[in-house]
Design brief:
Layout: H1 20-23, H2 26-31, E1 38-43, E2 49-54
Length: 55
């Protein structure tokens, strides 16, 4: 089955709890892709710690 998503919420998407799509956009549920998160740490030239969070 092919589902195309336009601006209007497709009928196949049913709220799991009341107000779900009023609080969060239905597009967030369709397009959200889980991905790993990692933190890179180092020390700057002046000796202070430095951290950079990536996804």
């Amino acid at each position: 089955m092919k589902i195309e998503c336009g601006i209007k919420k497709p009928d196949v998407l049913v709220e799991k709890w009341q107000g779900q799509y009023a609080i969060f956009s239905w597009m967030e549920y369709v397009t959200a892709i889980p991905q790993p998160l990692f933190l890179i740490t180092s020390f700057k030239e002046n000796g202070k710690p430095n951290a950079c969070f990536h996804a």
